[in-house]
Amino acid sequence: MTHREGNQASDFCLQGSDGKSHSLQDYRGKTLILYFYPRDNTPGCTKESCGFRDLKSDFDSQNTVILGVSKDSLSSHDNFIAKFNLPFVLLSDPDTSMMQIYGAWGEKKIYGKVSTGCIRSTIIIDPQGKVIKHWTKVKNAADHPAEVLNFLKG
Questions:
Q1: At 46, which helix (H) or strand (E)?
Q2: I need a surface site. Which of 59, 64, 99, 153 has the fewest CB within 10 A?
């Protein structure tokens, strides 16, 4: 499914680092940021996650919830959260089902080599469940959280 801006977002159900099951319906009434990243504890993913962490109070003031999504295990997420003091839930998508639905899993090119994996991307879903912004390929992981915040601030 293509998550074009203006379309209804697809539901999902994944386990979170908080020990709970999370679905799109859980976030009705709030703006939801889903950021898809390749792997816990890698340089780009750490910079991006810490960027969202550092701006969390600004996102909170926008009535926004942040969820990170990767195929890492919940124990890997727990370690990542503890190591970098991440104040939001990370979802585990071990079979990549959600990433595939949201266009965050597929062919990508890294240093000229083609492989299949997680495509760093971000989707913002409005309080009614519609996609309002979709970055299909995030270029600069470190600067991206500020870009997301600037979009929300209009």
A1: helix 43-54
A2: 153
